[in-house]
Amino acid sequence: AALEKQIEEINEQIRKEKEEAEARMRQASKNAEKSTGGSGNGSKNWSEDDLQLLIKAVNLFPAGTNSRWEVIANYMNIHSSSGVKRTAKDVIGKAKSLQKLDPHQKDDINKKAFDKFKKEHGVVPQADNATPSERFEGPCTDFTPWTTEEQKLLEQALKTYPVNTPERWEKIAEAVPGRTKKDCMKRYKELVEMVKAKKAAQEQVLNASRAKK
C-alpha cells in the first residue's frame, strides 16, 4: 500500500508538471501570435486585404521615410476596410513574418496586391524595383514599370515645361524616349497620389504625437 501511494504521488507530480508545461506552451504561442499580429486587440488576424495593403504601404514608404512604421500603421488604419487599428509594433511584426514567407506565397500576395491596386486606381505602384520584369496590362497599352532614368527625365521635363506651356504633354513625352503622352500623364497622376498619401499619413503621425504631448 505504501508503494502504491508513492507511485500515485509520482504520477500526480508528473501530471502537474505536464499541465504546467502545456500552460507554458499555450502562453508562449499566445505571445508569439501577439508579436506577429495574430491576437490581442490591435493585432487581430490579418485578412488578405490587410496583407495587400501592408505590402502596398511598405512599397509606398521605403526605408528612410521619417517615422516609417508609424506612418505605415497610420496609412493602414486610414485605408483598411477591416476596422482593426494597427500599431507600429503590429506592422513591424507582420512585415517580418511576411519576409520569412515562402517566395511563391510572397509572389502570390504581391500579385494580388498589384491587381487590386490596378483595379482601384488604374495605375501600378512602383515596388522599389522589386519586380522589374513584370508587365501589367493597362487599358490600351502594355505597362512597364518606370526605370530610375525615365523617372529623372520625366521630372526634368516637368520642370522644363511648366503648366502653361502649349502642347505641354507632347513635349514632355518627347523628352522621355519610349514613353507616350498617355504614359507620362498616367505616371504624373500616380506620383501626385503617392505624395498626397505620404503627406496625409505623416500628418496623422504628427497629430498623434502632438495629442500625446
The SS-based structural class is mainly alpha
Estimate the global geometry from the Cα principal axes. Answer: elongated
The radius of gyration over CA amounts to 26 Å
CATH hierarchy class name of the domain at 48-118: Mainly Alpha
SSE topology:
Blueprint: H1 2-35, H2 48-60, H3 68-79, H4 88-99, H5 103-121, E1 136-137, E2 142-143, H6 148-160, H7 168-175, H8 181-212
Helix pairs in contact: 2-3, 2-5, 3-4, 3-8, 6-7, 7-8
Quick take:
Residues 1-46 are annotated as: Disordered. This protein has helices spanning 2-35, 48-60, 68-79, 88-99, 103-121, 148-160, 168-175, 181-212, and strands at residues 136-137, 142-143.
How would you describe the overall organization of this protein?
The chain has 213 residues and is an all-alpha fold. The protein is built from 8 helices and 2 strands; from the N terminus they run H-H-H-H-H-E-E-H-H-H. The chain has helices at 2-35, 48-60, 68-79, 88-99, 103-121, 148-160, 168-175, 181-212; strands spanning 136-137, 142-143. Strands 1-2 form a two-stranded antiparallel sheet. Among the domains are: 48-118, Arc Repressor Mutant, subunit A; 148-211, Homeodomain-like (Arc Repressor Mutant, subunit A). The longest helix is centred in the N-terminal third of the chain and has 34 residues, at 2-35. Mean pLDDT is 75; it is low at 37-43 and 125-141. Residues 141-196 form the SANT domain. Pfam families: Myb_DNA-binding_2 (PF23082). This is DnaJ homolog subfamily C member 2.
